[in-house]
Write a structure and sequence with these properties.
Blueprint (H helix, E strand, L loop, with lengths): L12 H10 L8 H12 L5 E5 L5 H9 L5 E6 L2 H11 L5 E5 L2 H4 L10 E4 L4
Parallel strand pairs: 1-2, 1-4, 2-3
Helix pairs in contact: 1-4, 2-3
Amino acid sequence: MINEFNQSVPGVYASIDEATRKRGFSMPSDILTCALLRTLAASKPAGKFLELGTGTGLSTSWILDGMDDEARLISLESNEKLLAVAENYLGQDNRLELIHIGGAEWIPSNAGGKFDYIRRHLAT
C-alpha cells in the first residue's frame, strides 16, 4: 500500500483538525476518503451535495475545496458542539448551508430534493 500522500489539504484543515482533537471527537473521516470527496465534488460543476453528519467539518472542508463557485452543499449535524467547530471555520462560505438537525428528522420533509451526491458519515 502507498503510504505517501501528495495532495494539498484545504487551508482550514489543520485548524479544524486541532479543534477536533481538543474536543475528543474520534470519528473523523480519514484523509484519503476526504481527498476522494474533494475529487467527486470537483467532477460535478454547479453540483448540489448533501452531507449527513458534518461532525466538526473536516470532510466538509474537503468537499468545499473541490466545489466550484456555483456548487452548493447542505450539511446536517445533530451535535451542537461539533457543529460549532464547522460553523467557526466554514460558516462564512456562502456555498455551504450548515443545519443543526439529524438526518432522520430532516430527510422526510426534504425527500423531493435532488443531489449529485450524498455523503453519509458512518460511525465505526
